[in-house]
Amino acid sequence: MNVLLVDDSRLARAELRHLLQAFPDVQIVGEARHAAEARTQLRQLQPDLLFLDIHMPGETGFELLATLDQAPHVIFTTAYDEYALRAFEVNALDYLLKPVQEMRLAAALEKARTKLAVQAVPELVGPGPTDEPAPTPLTAQDQVFVKDGERCWFVRLADIKLFEINGSYTQIYFDQHRPLIPRTLQHLEARLDPKVFFRANRQQIINLKWIAGIEPWFSNTLKIQLRDGPEVEVSRQQSVRFRELMSL
């Protein structure tokens, strides 16, 4: 498990590095003192896990995450307990208060191992052997089997208007149904046809065929209205990509 440490305190980074030595499967691939440095290292190193402070010079940890279209799993490390709810709203794996306790660190790392193991499974939905080659990309006309609890569907991808992160799962929008599947958006994005499905932001993938309207939004971003569905705010970087993709 490759890890990046982001904290403006050198002592805090040193203490966390010392604690992580007790976990032989963890490799610290880099350290960053602030958001700008972290953004560069995330792009270059592509770690599996990010230990992220909240209060740093310049941008906060939350502001850093808001600028990323894709991010590794995140464990917040902070001296402040009032941000815990917000941390889990951005799908953080855990929230560790400084000074970090080894037992809490071990529990957080176990959550990360579980998440990474789920991502390694190469199927869209449902269990299967992990030693097979990654399946070929799906077309919009392909049908997929979806199971949520005791309910099952066999649905065309063309009929799915939206994939959206919901806690540890991804929620699928089709007809009046909203089932949850244990897959990440990164996994789904790798299987979906990029001519039909577009990653709008860190939380959502939209079906371009279901767009009912587009309007300019804040800071040169876009807001997209889906037919019979919710509005989706496109991130700044993805708004640029969307304009390039859809322009003549």
From TrEMBL:
Where is the PTM 4-aspartylphosphate found along the chain?
D53
Q: Which GO terms describe its molecular function?
A: DNA binding; phosphorelay response regulator activity
Residue intervals of the Response regulatory domain? 2-113
| Endpoints of the signal sequence | none
* Domain HTH LytTR-type stretches: 146-248
Which terms are listed as keywords in the entry? Answer: Phosphoprotein
| Keyword Amino-acid biosynthesis recorded | no
Query: Keyword Phosphoprotein on this protein?
Result: yes
Stored PANTHER family: STAGE 0 SPORULATION PROTEIN A HOMOLOG, TRANSCRIPTIONAL REGULATOR-RELATED
* Name listed for the protein in its UniProt record: Response regulator transcription factor
